Amino acid sequence: MTDQKFTRHIISGIAGAVLITVGILLAIFYTAPQDVMPALPFVLGGMGIVSLVSGISGALSVRMMRKDPSFAKEISDFYDERAILIENKAKAKTDNFTAISLWIVIIFLAVMQVQISIILVFVGVMIMRMLVMLYLTKTYSKQM
Question: Residue 11: its pLDDT value, please?
Fold first, then answer.
């Protein structure tokens, strides 16, 4: 299993290097961009950097777990029941904070008399958040 994970991380790193190269080549040789094309090299470069760093860090962590089994046990012990409960509580508090902050931003935008379409986008995000929360609550209550 670790060989498959290691291979996946290496492939991710290689794909990131390819994306970075394509982004750089587009920035150098494509001199007359139109519409969205001026941003494309930078988007490809950003995606490539994220993929490259993710692949390298994943491959290194798999390598460390292979070399030191106590490190692998330490990581598996990190995800015990207590740690998962703490993490879930922190996620819930963060979600509450984010929701309150987003409503405050919506109110400020309304007071500043910003275009209604911008305010409606934020309100749509909040409504989508509430619908997803209702759906997940219903789904998890059936499962548990």
Answer: 94
